[in-house]
Amino acid sequence: MTADEARTLGQGLLAWYRRSGRRLPWRETRDPFAIWVSEVMLQQTRVETVIPYYHRFLRRFPTVEALAAAATDEVLGQWEGLGYYARALRLHEGARAMVRRGEGLPGSVAAWREVPGVGPYMAAALASFASGAAAPAVDGNVARVMSRVLALPRPRLAASARAVAGAIEAMMAGAGDPAEVNHALMDLGATVCRARAPRCGVCPLASLCRARSGGDPERYPAPEARGRGPVLAVRIHVIRHLGRVLVYRRPPGGILGGLWAFPARFENEGGLAVEIPGVTWRAERQAFRHVFTHQTWQVTARAGDVARPGPAPDPTRWVDAPAVDRLPMGRPDRRVWAWARELGPATVTL
Ligand code: SF4
Fold first, then answer.
1. Taking the CA atoms of the chain, what radius of gyration do you get in angstroms?
2. CB of residue 86 inside a 6 A radius of ligand 1
3. Distance from the alpha carbon of residue 133 to the mean position of ligand 1, in angstroms
4. Section 92-100 average pLDDT
């Protein structure tokens, strides 16, 4: 792509963005902390879902210092329902590291890369959106758009990625506002250059798009082989004793890491199977499937009571039943609890 072509594309793209781009709350600010929160929430989550969480989270934690000072449970509580809780833990860890260093919020791609949990895409996005850096932020949508404009079947391969970044930088140089070019490409991918049925007739890049001139833009990018991940049978146990319930906190790092959960038995391994002598199992339910990114749980819920429990085996603990509602929990455990709580006193039998 020549410099003149890049300028033409960049200017057309920005004219389209100013007419048709999405108005999103994190685009109304240059506060790097607020933009960071939005970028973390937007990982694997739709824009419409994120908006109320974004506002609520920033009301509770308006600054990086406020987030760093918060307890982990409170951060997870504000995140509950958004899923992928490891993101919240990384954000919290990043805020604490930043405050410890005492150098304020980063302003460049390189400085953002020093923050725990911030990868290359996010560093570019944050430096561009908050500080105006000319850094191409290539998410899935942008990769698809540029794969088609440049007719590159695999835009993530190293040589292609360099060509993509170079073309975006040239558009930024020609159009003059790096943050808007990044936003515009993201919006174009979300609303016009869609994975299926791209709307080439209204696309500001159509005049120079090689995939379009080839007649079959959906050929780009080439499909990737995708594994669906295993389906695991999981039995989640709600064990009660006189208004108290047995729970534990999952270890950090794994699936639903850092969240509270009920003891669970997995068909293969994982989870926490505790042996509590004397449990009277009184209800069981083939409950539901829960799909994660890399695996699916086929959950069976079981509820039981124990008359003389003794001390809770490590790492579990007994908590009062009403307190369970306030513990940050993953969706599978929350759904099982909603079912078990409705069982009421021990009158239901298998
Ligand atoms: S012309 Fe069509 S294929 Fe090319 S970028 Fe625009 S919408 Fe995508």
1. 24
2. no
3. 26
4. 94
Which ligand 1 atom sits closest to the C-alpha of 200? 2
Give per-residue pLDDT as tens, 215-239.
999 999 998 655 456 788 888 999 9
Summarize pLDDT for 110-138 with one digit per residue, the tens: 999 988 888 889 999 999 999 999 999 99
DSSP letter assigned to residue 329 = B
Determine if ligand 1 sits within 6 Å of the CB of residue 193.
yes
pTM above 0.85, yes or no: no
272 pLDDT above the threshold of 90 = no
Contact yes or no for 297/283 (Cβ under 8 A): no
Which two tokens mark 216?
A: 């079959």
**Rounded distance from Cα 19 to ligand 1 centre (Å):** 18
Q: What is the CATH number of the domain that holds 291?
A: 3.90.79.10
> Total domain count for the chain?
2
Nearest to 178 by CA among 187, 186, 169: 169
State which ligand 1 atom lies nearest to the alpha carbon of 209: 4
Sign of torsion over alpha carbons 149, 150, 153, 155: negative
Same domain, 210 and 294: no
Within a domain: 261: yes
Q: Which domain holds residue 171?
A: 3-219
Active site residues: 39
pLDDT of the residue at 278: 78
Q: Which atom of ligand 1 is nearest to the CA of 206?
A: 1
Average the pLDDT over each of 26-35, 160-169, 269-278 and give the range with the smallest value: 269-278
In order of 150, 245, 276, 297, the CA distances from 321 in angstroms are 58, 6, 18, 25
Residue whose CA lies nearest to ligand 1 atom number 2: 200
Please give the pLDDT value at position 348.
Answer: 36
